[in-house]
Amino acid sequence: METTFVFYVPVRPKMPATLTQYKEYRIPSSRLPRSYLKKHLHLPNATPYHSGPSIILDDTTAAHFDLYEAWLKDGKIYTMSELGDRTHTSLAMSLGHSIGLFKKPEPKLSPEEARATYGNLLGCYALATTLHERYFQDAIASKIVSILRSPHGQQSQFVRLLSREGVQAIIGRHGASSPLFFLVVSAYARFATAHEIGKLAFSNYPGEFKSHVMKEMALLRARQHVDGAPAADFAVGECRFHGHGFYEPCSVRRG
């Protein structure tokens, strides 16, 4: 009989000296990466009501795990607003989309919505690291690139998430040679304003981030003059931000 893992995830970010409410998720072992299973199958049961391992994940939230659960079911990465639309869409509208009768318009994000969307996707990427979910990571990276390419993507909000503390957290969690690091470098080089780039050179950002941003900007200038260019030209090949090897098939487009 297949083992089912029970994950308990905080409904909201865990804060000191506050009572944390948890949401329960049940994931069959066949849906989890082997490397994660090898690490956790030996765990004792945390509850007498369930025969499989029970795991508390305090470094994520239900907003992240909801998207992971949806990805396991549909093989797609949703934003929180898209996930809400998916939940409330009628059967008739779903059938209409499936046969092309209805074309859903591209969402126009407000700056606040865009910042929350980008932040949530970065949180999902961290969850993917915890779960050893490389396919999930690659799909999230492609989703971020897709939004950054959009004319309504509010790209400046992604750049503003990349504060010194934010970049240090990415390097500390994922490393300065990770696909995510190169994604944030490329996005910063492409979408930061001239004022932000000028401040970066004399800031206390991590040195590896500053040097890679400057190199990326030099490459951009060598290929094309990007001032005023549409966002759709960003990262034409997003596989450079995936974890699969150069000669391996794209994990996002596997099938």
Report the structural category. mainly alpha
Topology as H/E string? EEHEHHHHHHHHHH
Number of helices: 11
Uncertain spans, ≥5 residues at pLDDT below 50? Answer: 98-103
Can you characterise this structure?
The chain contains 11 helices and 3 strands, in the order E-E-H-E-H-H-H-H-H-H-H-H-H-H. The protein is mainly α. It has a 3-stranded mixed beta sheet, covered by helices on one side. Helix 5 (111-130) crosses helix 7 (155-161).
List the helices and strands and how they pair.
Layout: E1 4-10, E2 22-28, H1 34-40, E3 54-56, H2 62-74, H3 80-88, H4 91-98, H5 111-130, H6 134-149, H7 155-161, H8 164-174, H9 179-191, H10 194-201, H11 207-223
Parallel strand pairs: 1-3
Antiparallel strand pairs: 1-2
Helix pairs in contact: 2-5, 5-6, 5-7, 7-9, 9-11
Overview features:
single chain, 255 residues, mainly alpha, 11 helices, 51% helix
Question: What's a concise summary of this model?
Answer:
Helix content is 51%, strand content 7%.
